[in-house]
Amino acid sequence: MVCRRQPGFTLIEMLVTLAIVAILSTLLLPLAETTARRTKEQDLKHALRQIRDGLDAYRKAVDEGRLGATADRSGYPPSLDVLVTGLEDQKDPKRRKLYFLRAIPRDPFADLGISAEESWGKRSYASAHDDPREGDDIYDVYSRSTAIGLNGIAYREW
């Protein structure tokens, strides 16, 4: 009588395969986390640039007399929402609205339970750059995250 070996894997082959998969997954997990964090950082840079462009466009419209600013104002918007809802163009005979942002981008490091505008820290024109405080206008925004970026700089300082 001839004994035939049945096809399949031995227990040793299965254990070796599982060990290799475990080692590869422990190597790839940190890489995946770094990639996800880098993506969030890119989103943060893009959002900060969008808001900065909107704030600068608002200020330019004020300087051109298109928004009818008063002398006691800094020339910056009172809220981020104004950049989206728009304001009447004082130089346009039809009084069409000027819009500066399509939507307020979210801080990618903020909690999802708050609105996009609330996700940002805001700095007024009157506050110092190293001690940002809210005020009557919005001169700049910053991330409220306390985390440090991959470049070693806190997201709050970007």
Please tell me about this protein's structure.
- There is one protein chain.
- The protein has 158 residues and is mainly α.
- The chain has helices spanning 11-63, 81-85, and strands spanning 87-88, 97-98, 120-123, 140-143.
- A two-stranded antiparallel ribbon has the order 1-2.
- Strand 1 and strand 2 (97-98) form a beta hairpin.
- The longest helix is centred in the N-terminal third of the chain and has 53 residues, at 11-63.
- It is elongated, with a radius of gyration of 27 Å.
- Strands of the largest sheet, in order across it? 1-2
The biggest sheet, with number of strands, parallel, antiparallel or mixed sense and barrel status, is: 2 strands, antiparallel
User: Overall 3D geometry?
Assistant: elongated
Structural class: mainly alpha
Quick recap:
The model has no long low-confidence stretch (mean pLDDT 91). It is built from 2 helices and 4 strands.
Key terms:
single chain; elongated; two-stranded antiparallel sheet; 4 strands; two-stranded antiparallel ribbon; mainly alpha; 37% helix; 158 residues
Which SSEs are present, and which pair or pack?
Elements lengths: L10 H53 L17 H5 L1 E2 L8 E2 L21 E4 L16 E4 L15
Antiparallel strand pairs: 1-2, 3-4
